[in-house]
Specification:
Aldo-Keto_reductase; 11 helices; TIM Barrel; alpha/beta; oxidoreductase activity; 37% helix; single chain; NADP_OxRdtase_dom; NAD(P)_OxRdtase_dom_sf; eight-stranded parallel β-sheet; 16% strand; two-stranded antiparallel sheet; NADP-dependent oxidoreductase domain-containing protein; globular
Amino acid sequence: MTTLPTRKIGPFTVSAIGLGCMNLSHAYLPRPDAADAERLLLHALDAGVTFLDTAALYGFGANEELLGRTVMHRRGDFTLASKCVLGGSDGKRGIDGSPEAITRTLEDSLHRLNTEHIDLYYMHRLDPKVPVEESVGALARAVEAGKIGAIGLSEMSAATLRRAHAVHPIAAMQTEYSPWTRNPEIAVLDACAELGTGFVAFSPVARGLLAGGISAEGVPEGDLRRGMPRFQGENLARNLDMAARFRAIAEAAGCSMAQLCMAWLLSRREFIVPIPGTTRIDHLDDLLGTFAHPVAPELLAQVDALFPPDAAAGPRYAREAQAQVDTEVWPDEQLA
């Protein structure tokens, strides 16, 4: 049980704000030490978060191991999500959506997570070399075997969602979504509504930009965001200008920037669950404080006006990473 508001994602009832665990082990800098990461996870459960999201990719297994040693004694307190297909070795990413790879990755994840069952298991990316029907077929067999409870997709299009759903019901689509990144509004949110698929919003505070976490200096060397066009040069300057105007709306609403992001997302559709990531307990508590700070509809409308769909300066990803996603893009959206 949780004291937080709840929403439905497929067959699961989860806290209306979950926790993305990636940056406890992967991608963003600075990273917490093991003890701090463990404290944050346990604090999240104590605070009522009942939806934890990890992946085989994160820390190349280290993030799953972190959850496996930290929270599995409280397995009944949360819905566990992880992902396959996008993985890697020697610090390099790779995609393999073959049934054999999915089966192997699942077994490895179960071992690292110290569990016999993952509630929600996503295809992290679409493998263009493998029909999605074959990949989903492997996941359907894992459902039948009791190793996973439901199937999800990540960073995929409405057309791919429909193809996958024809093989087995898809419980959730996970894609980047924030006031700054509105690609799911092109087609995916409507497809989710049509099919009864939940939507899980990752990077809901715009990778820190709309939480006040990015300065004109950008991000440290070695941080994943450093290679993203939106965090470089003139693009960053333009995006920081929009963030400053967003801060003014949050101040008018009497809430933090992060809380305004959460309120905006939760207002979009009743089946959306944001999964912000953080390494700090005070930031997590601020995010969960969203429910104590309702935002007036006219201020949410100001957010819409500030961020039309193609407002962000620069593409989401550099060319190589963009080639690994199947999501729709806006007609005028830049591609690196």
